[in-house]
Structure formats: C-alpha cells, structure tokens
Design goal:
Length: 351
C-alpha cells in the first residue's frame, strides 16, 4: 500500500528539546515575576486612596503581596510535584505498602503520603484500595494522616512564606504524628470495626507494568496537575489570604499574643477545636498561619491549628464514615488529636 499523501500525514509532536526549552523559559519568567512582587505591591497600594500606616493600608499591603506570591509559589510547587507524581500511581503505592508489617510499614506509609497525589478528597477510595490489597490497618492510617497533612503543597508554601525552619519542623513532627498514630491504631487491632463490606473486599495484585514516559510526558503531567490543583484551590487560597490580611491589619498584636501565646495553656486545645469544622486545605490555611506568626502567636499553637485543619477536619471524617464505624472514627480522631496537642505543647515549651 502506498504511503498517504503529505496533506493527510499526522502532524509531528513537539520534541523533548522543545518542551524542555519552553519549561526553562517559563521558569525564568517565574523567577523574574517573583523578584518584582514586593516593589509591585508597594507601588500598587501606594497609589490607592488609603492613608499610609492605617489598618486598611496594612491589610491591603498584606493582600497585595501575598496573593501573587502564594499563586506563584503554588504553581511552581504543584508543577514540580506533578512531574514527581508521574513516577507514582495508586497501584504502585498500594504495592509498596502491601505486606509490610507495623513499624517499618508506618514509616514507609507516612513518607509516601508526602509525595503521592492523594488528599482528603480521595481518602475513601485510597482507604478501600489499601485495605483490600492487604495493607495493615495501622499502616493505612499512617498514610491517611500524612497525605493531607504533610503534603508537598503545604511544605512548599511554608518554605516560601515563613522559611525553611518552620517547613522542616512541620515536616518532621507531621511525620511523627502520622507514624505514631498509625502504629497505635495498629496495636489496638481494630479491623473488626471496619464496615463489613470493606472487610470482605479483596483485590488482585497491583499491575505495576506502566508505559515508559518521556520528559515531555512528565512535563505535561506537571501542567495537568497545575491546572487541576490550582483550579480547585485558588478560591480557598484567596479566602485564606483575605483572612490573613484582616488579622495582619486589624487584630492587635497584644490581643493575639495573649490568646495564642505561650502563656495561654488552653490555646492549643482551643485552636484544635476551632479547626475541626473548618473546611480548607494547605493553600488556604498557610496565609493565615503566616499572619498569626507575624502577630506573635506561638509556633506550637499555630502548627497545632494547621495540623488539625488538614488532618481531622469534619469533612474528612464525614467521608470516612462510609468505610469506618463510628467507634473507629472516634479512635482515629482521638489518637491523632493527642499527637497534635503534644506537638503544640512541646513547641510552646521549647521555643
């Protein structure tokens, strides 16, 4: 058979060099934009009919600087982790954890939770997949705590907004909470408290045969992740920055320090209780964290608040009710809450 005419030939796909070159150019543009954020925010707010030094001026300055800053940080972190995530899949993650015993399995599950593409919205399908694949219940819970609480978006934004020390502190203690919580739940042997239909599930071994991806495929995965995640969280991010701007501009430093300072022993459990009904994510809550720290709130109290919002919020527990009995949910919340309270009190005592 003769070859098809040139007019009907399939268009050639852009080569790897073109994708890599475009990515490098986009990264250079990102750096240029990020370097001009502070001068732009000063110029923008300075041209508004607002008295310098007023509460409104301070709030608008915070909002004008943090909105583009968080957006830029969010896009670069999500893109980078989207590329990393192209090396993972739900099946591969399941296979990594299946057959692992308590202890080492909890550590592996918590570590995987940091870099795998799952959050509280995917808690139910991931939980079902893990349990049905034979992953121990305690190991599954370590992943369930780590994935939404110590995820790469939280760490990237913390690093960009409040510095690497706070980001590393959050990473370390978040992993400890996830590992210890899962291990404790595993030692209680509560498999009988799963919903009956979940206990009866069994799946075939995960298929790890995946098609080899080119650099262009991985860049596309990063772009897809950026469109998906930024598209889902930008509104929460704006709400969080708005809340942070209000705190920064209008809440007196002395008042906030007295409520959330080291001397207020009751502040840690209070912020955990406040966090439970809040529906947010890392992108939305971190600007609030930045404002609280800037106003003199104790680091331990602020970290406890952030952990509670991302790990034991009411929306996630409602989703988990589909697969866990009420008793098991109560144990899960209780164990994780104890770990979060311990982190809060420990930091307030040491720092």
């Amino acid at each position: 058979m003769s070859a098809p005419p040139a007019a009907y030939a399939q268009p050639s796909q852009p080569g790897a060099a073109l994708w890599i070159g475009a990515t490098v150019a986009a990264l250079a543009l990102w750096v240029a934009l990020y370097s001009q954020l502070e001068p732009f925010s000063i110029w923008f707010v300075g041209n508004l009919p607002v008295s310098p030094g007023s509460h409104l001026h301070e709030a608008l300055s915070f909002f004008a600087l943090d909105t583009p800053k968080v957006l830029l940080l969010l896009t670069i972190v999500v893109f980078g982790m989207g590329v990393v995530r192209s090396f993972f899949s739900a099946e591969r993650t399941r296979a990594m954890l299946a057959g692992r015993h308590e202890g080492a399995g909890n550590v592996a599950a918590a570590a995987l939770g940091v870099v795998t593409p799952f959050c509280s919205c995917s808690a139910v399908p991931m939980f079902i997949g893990f349990v049905s694949a034979g992953v121990p219940l305690g190991v599954t819970f370590s992943f369930l705590v780590s994935a939404p609480m110590v995820n790469e978006i939280a760490l990237g934004l913390l690093f960009g907004l409040v510095g690497w020390k706070v980001a590393m502190i959050y990473l370390g203690f978040g992993l400890v909470v996830a590992i210890v919580s899962g291990w404790v739940i595993g030692q209680l042997h509560l498999e009988g408290w799963l919903e009956p239909w979940v206990r009866n599930l069994r799946t075939a071994p995960a298929d790890l045969t995946t098609q080899r991806q080119t650099p262009a495929d991985r860049i596309k995965a990063g772009l897809d992740a950026m469109r998906d995640i930024v598209g889902r969280v930008w509104l929460w991010m704006i709400l969080g920055i708005g809340t942070g701007a209000f705190i920064h501009g209008y809440v007196p430093t002395e008042l906030l320090a007295s409520i959330m300072g080291r001397g207020a022993w009751w502040s840690v459990p209070a912020v955990v209780l406040i966090a439970v009904p809040i529906y947010s994510n890392a992108a939305g809550i971190i600007p609030v964290v930045e404002a609280l720290l800037g106003k003199g709130a104790a680091l331990g109290t602020v970290l406890a608040f952030m952990m509670a919002v991302t790990a034991i919020s009411a929306p996630e527990t409602i989703l988990l009710r589909r697969v866990l009995s009420t008793r098991l949910i109560a144990v899960f919340i209780g164990v994780v809450t104890v770990g979060i309270l311990a982190v809060g009190y420990l930091f307030n005592a040491l720092i």
